Amino acid sequence: MYKTGRTSEIFTKGVDNFLKVAEANRVKVGTQWIWCPCLICKNFKRFDNIQEIEFHLFQHGFTHTYTCWTRHGESIFDFGTSSINEGNNENDILNDVSDNLNDDNLNDDNLNDDNLNDDSLKDMFNDLENNLGEKDKEKLEQLFDDAEKPLYTGCEKFSKLSAVLKLFNLKAKYGWSDQSFTNLLEVLNDMLPEGNELPVSSYQAKKLMCPMGLEVQRIHACPNDCLLYRKEFENSHKCVTCGESRYKRKKKNDEYDDDVTKNGPAAKVLWYFPIIPRLKRLFSNEKEAKLLRWHSDERINDGNLRHVADSPQWRNIDSKYPEFGNEIRNIRFGLSSDGINPFGNMSSRHSTWPVLLCVYNLPPWLCMKRKYIMMSLLIQGPKQPGNNIDVYLAPLIDDLKILWRPGVTVYDAFKKEYFLMRAMIFCTISDFPAYGNLSGYATKGKLACPVCEDDTSSMWLNNCKKTVFMGHRRFLPSGHKYRKNKKDFNGKIEKGEVRKTFDAFSRVENLKTVWGKRKRVEKGVIWKKRSIFWDLPYWMHLQVRHCLDVMHIEKNVCDSLLGLLLDIPGKTKDGINVRRDMEEMGIRKELAPVEEGRRIFLPPACYTMSKAEKTKFCQCLHDIKVPSSYSANIKRLVSMKEQKGYSPIG
Fold this sequence. Notes:
Layout: H1 9-29, E1 34-35, E2 46-47, H2 50-60, H3 89-98, H4 121-131, H5 137-148, H6 160-174, H7 178-191, H8 202-208, E3 217-221, E4 268-272, H9 275-283, H10 286-291, H11 294-297, H12 312-320, H13 322-325, E5 331-337, E6 353-359, E7 373-379, H14 389-404, E8 408-412, E9 417-421, E10 423-430, H15 432-439, E11 459-461, E12 466-468, H16 504-508, E13 546-548, H17 550-565, H18 576-585, E14 594-596, E15 599-601, H19 611-623
Parallel strand pairs: 5-10, 10-13
Antiparallel strand pairs: 1-2, 3-4, 4-7, 5-6, 6-7, 8-9, 11-12, 14-15
Domain Transposase-associated: 1-74
Protein name: Transposase-associated domain-containing protein
Organism: Tagetes erecta (African marigold)
């Protein structure tokens, strides 16, 4: 139909069939309006005169992406199927015409880049229409009306909705507060002609766009992290574990209302953003659906490690679960979590924990972009959940179980078909303390190494009051020269070997965990809990379940090195206590502290820099020039006066 031109007999027949379907749907629904699917109107405008729509279609042509006529009575679940009722004229017409709607190219001069803009209102409405329930259809109809309504009488460039979206995009981009946005709307309202449609407050603007948002669940939690008030605890007023009230109470003896919504604010809240609707929305956009196939269709497979799909674990999953690996559209997530302070550095005690998911199906230059990172959970502070993070992960794990088996039926806008989508957690990414919270391993104390477990080589420093791990040479080959080098290490020959891999699940399989902050972990216990990730059927078959975030490691190492080289107070690893500990160990005797009367002198080490060397080093950092967008402005991080040379970020 599109391939032939608007003067062909096939196009004429297709338009006639479409008009019959549209008219039949108008009678069926009982409305006087019909949406116009021409290239100009794009289902944003509707008319009561069907001849006007016919004129538009012959003048401008069909919108090339409108292949399933959901605005004119066709159900998206019936599109492309072969089971058509022979006695239903309307379905026969749709079946005849749908074969002509799958062509990628439209021979029309009006088709330009603007028509292919994936961020257009049309694509947003298509996404919404496929994901909204019946109760939200009225809101969507109002949204369509706002998209047609001009911003003011005679305005042709902006509609009421497009103007609000444009302004709200600026608000998000530059971090405007709600109050500043409200003030801006008030000023713009005064500038525009009388009777304009622009909202006058941030609240009204958000309410206008509410159907575009995704579902969010606000789940009450025990303030001691014992449980979530969901499922069997949904109507409970107190925690069954610790007895704490579900709500913020001024008096302990305050009575509770049977209606949980009338008892005041919750003591702690978990915000859950369901991932299934977000995945459906990704696949309902043709461009995004194509990108989700990149790892199979466009990735260069030459043995080099450029992407997660090049890793052995990706191939092992495909081999272990061929029914999962054969469907290239199945999603593999990376899960990450860490504590943040939303109030800046002024309130150092506050810790809010977001749980983020990144989609590894995407190409490497997109999978870590903010647009494609999903915040699935937001755990309210001010205290971090710690090992009780499993309590808050429960809603996400429930959805992940569904996504693994049986899966979810999703419409693929790129292939124009439905398929059964499945998803899994490929690995977690975190810093070392968060790794302990997610995995259940005790990452503090003398047995903190998760590789060596109870065979960890550690030492307590009496002066520094900390545990250090000096057995890292055991990971070297047996004949390596460093194994016999006593002088430059801990004064001993290293004979230890790397511990053989062990089955982590066998360590935690029978662990019984009581959630909450008031319990005390027994001393010497290296596994604190059975992580909730073990509830996922595939978790025990993953080779690498938890990964450490390179960014944290690099930053910490860089901070330590620069603090040591420039002797920054509070940042340097050198000092009187370190020298005394080395003296007790019998190593680096030339660096032992020297007492001269009441004063103690620390001999300079090989890394000690003179004042002139520090100045030269800081000057080098101060004057360095890098390409645009390569890094932050290093010049601002250098203090030439104090010769600190480095001001750590984050």
